[in-house]
């Protein structure tokens, strides 16, 4: 079972860490989406848990059409115009193009495509958090993650994952003492 | 709303073991394990407090999101003895009294139930306010509601005027009210003399099902089980152990539990030169703690105050002699079998008291003790069967399934 924990507030660090450890002990993977990394410095997550910072994912997000027309197509054209042996010159052109044209243009476009932060978050999480991870369960780990979980509920469950507050119903945490 | 069977039971509790805190609410889990076999469908509603120390508008947004998520994210999970478990996150803003806390627990359980009452005809809350009030506020109008008080911090609850008033209301409204020890009953009787007659005694159930494979033959491997906090006297225990270890280098001490003193105790053990003889395991699940009891020779419990002393009775159940302080609960739980079970010592701040207690116990061991007899008597008092039957009498008005199904 691959489990994604939403722990943006770091207010239930012990509970999230213990459940992540239990998931990994049962042979699954634990990915923890966090807010500020500083919140976890004193109580780091268990070894083996993958940590993703939501803000970093959001910062790195660009819509598909921006990535295509502003970055991929120009790079392809450079490869065609300056093939193999001219690689070093191509890289110089590419860097200059990104620095002087693509990035400033992206910043201007971002004012439009980042106007709706929830939409950005949904797309960023769908592509960079859920993409390729085959998540089966999403655990809302603290009170500060509830709003994000509700905003992203459709995206989080779009691949068949279930939403939960604990891993209990997949990995019961209490066993009989008899 | 589903149709409930006459013997269906709902348990409402703010504490239930979680991976992070396997000890939290272990007594509630033990009660479920003891009583579920003679009941219909048993559902545990664990209202789990989640810190919501946020700005007021952020708290409102989180609450709205929580309401939206509850129908999709709340799932019934299996727990002990075939019972079901629903963990309901309760958003708790900062700076609330126990009465306010109870209000939060009650309202979030109502949200989780979709505004419907708990379907079971018998509802049992653990802890007067967060469990008892929550049970009363969410039970069917015709349900029989019972409450068990365990809290060792009851005096602090009763110091708050609003909490005291709400507590009195719980006592008045519930069908039956139980305290797990005379200490708890005494506190409540003093606070609410007009309702004292309503408070009965039913202890936490202890499992006596698995005795140790071989009896204890020497008092070499010491064990402590509980929180590593000052109130439990663990620093005194470490100092006393160092003195005894100097005389008997073969002694070992295992400290099972977690708490604020964990690091200090490890450092002090190193300073005393006994680090190799002292093991700190951290918190362990109840099953594992019981297993450790069967692997040790002596339970030392130097607490400053206990309302019951579950670990002490569990130790006797595991065939372990005990060295315990007269700190309230243990005098009652071990009444009549204290000498057979081990040694009792006074509560003071001198490690020598523990050392002297150990020496006295060592001189009497094994012939001056009668561990099988102590075990038999405590099983009759606190065993699953006894506690379950007491619950069945109150819940269903009969002697319970235990007495009918497998009488010997």
Distance between the termini of chain B: 40 Å
Oligomeric form of this entry? Answer: heterodimer
Order of helices and strands of chain A: EHEEHHHHEHE
Number of helices of chain A: 6
Tertiary shape of chain A: elongated
Radius of gyration of chain B: 22 Å
How far apart, in Å, are the first and last alpha carbons of chain A?
28 Å
- Give the helix tally of chain B: 17
Q: Major sheet of chain B: size, sense and barrel closure?
A: 8 strands, mixed
The proportion of residues forming helix of chain A, as a percent range, comes to: 40-55%
Query: What would you call the shape of chain B?
Result: globular
Enumerate the strands of the largest sheet of chain B in spatial order, edge to edge or round the barrel. 3-4-2-1-5-6-7-8
Q: Whole-number average pLDDT of chain B?
A: 93
Provide the low-confidence segments of chain A as ranges. Answer: 174-178
User: How many DSSP-defined strands of chain A?
Assistant: 5
């Amino acid at each position: 079972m691959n489990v994604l924990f939403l722990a943006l507030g770091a207010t239930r660090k012990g509970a999230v860490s213990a459940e992540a450890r239990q998931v990994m002990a049962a042979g699954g993977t634990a990915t923890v989406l966090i807010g500020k990394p500083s919140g976890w410095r004193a109580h780091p997550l268990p070894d083996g848990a993958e940590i993703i910072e939501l803000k970093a994912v959001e910062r790195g997000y660009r819509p598909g059409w921006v990535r295509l027309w502003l970055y991929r197509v120009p790079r392809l054209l450079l490869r065609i115009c300056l093939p193999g042996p001219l690689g070093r010159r191509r890289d110089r052109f590419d860097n200059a193009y990104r620095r002087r044209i693509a990035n400033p243009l992206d910043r201007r476009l971002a004012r439009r495509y980042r106007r709706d932060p929830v939409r950005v978050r949904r797309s960023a999480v769908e592509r960079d958090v859920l993409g390729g991870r085959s998540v089966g369960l999403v655990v809302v780990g603290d009170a500060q993650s509830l709003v994000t979980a509700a905003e992203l509920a459709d995206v989080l469950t779009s691949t068949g994952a279930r939403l939960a507050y604990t891993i209990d119903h997949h990995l019961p945490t209490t066993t009989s003492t008899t | 709303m589903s149709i409930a069977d006459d013997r269906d039971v709902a348990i409402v509790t703010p504490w239930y073991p979680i991976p992070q805190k396997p000890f939290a609410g272990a007594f509630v889990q033990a009660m479920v394990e003891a009583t579920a076999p003679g009941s219909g469908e048993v559902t545990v509603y664990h209202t789990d407090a989640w810190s919501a120390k946020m700005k007021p508008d952020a708290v409102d947004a989180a609450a709205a999101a929580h309401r939206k998520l509850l129908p999709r994210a709340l799932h019934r999970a299996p727990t002990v003895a075939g019972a079901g478990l629903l963990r309901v996150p309760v958003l708790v803003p900062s700076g609330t009294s126990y009465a306010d806390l109870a209000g939060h627990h009650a309202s979030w359980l109502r949200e989780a139930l979709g505004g419907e009452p708990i379907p079971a005809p018998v509802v049992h809350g653990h802890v007067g306010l967060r469990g008892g009030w929550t049970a009363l506020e969410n039970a069917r109008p015709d349900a029989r509601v019972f409450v068990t008080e365990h809290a060792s911090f009851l005096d602090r609850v009763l110091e708050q005027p609003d909490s005291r008033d709400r507590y009195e209301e719980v006592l008045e409204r519930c069908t039956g009210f139980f305290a797990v020890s005379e200490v708890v009953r005494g506190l409540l009787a003093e606070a609410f003399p007009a309702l004292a007659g309503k408070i009965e005694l039913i202890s936490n159930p202890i499992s006596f099902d698995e005795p140790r494979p071989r009896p204890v033959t020497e008092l070499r491997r010491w064990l402590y089980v509980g929180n590593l906090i000052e109130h439990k006297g663990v620093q005194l225990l470490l100092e006393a152990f160092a003195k005894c270890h100097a005389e008997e280098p073969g002694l070992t001490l295992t400290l099972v539990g977690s708490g604020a003193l964990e690091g200090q105790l490890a450092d002090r053990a190193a300073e005393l030169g006994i680090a190799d003889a002292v093991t700190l395991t951290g918190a362990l699940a109840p099953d594992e703690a019981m297993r450790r009891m069967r692997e040790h020779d002596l339970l030392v419990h130097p607490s400053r105050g206990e309302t019951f002393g579950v670990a002490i009775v569990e130790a006797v159940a595991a065939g372990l002699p005990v060295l315990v302080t007269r700190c309230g609960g243990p005098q009652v739980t071990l009444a009549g079998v204290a000498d057979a079970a081990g040694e009792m010592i006074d509560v003071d701040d001198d490690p020598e008291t523990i050392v002297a207690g150990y020496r006295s116990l060592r001189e009497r061991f094994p012939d001056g003790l009668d561990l099988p007899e102590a075990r038999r008597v405590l099983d009759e008092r606190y065993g699953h069967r006894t506690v379950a039957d007491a619950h069945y009498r109150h819940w269903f008005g009969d002697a319970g399934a235990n007495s009918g199904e497998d009488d010997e």
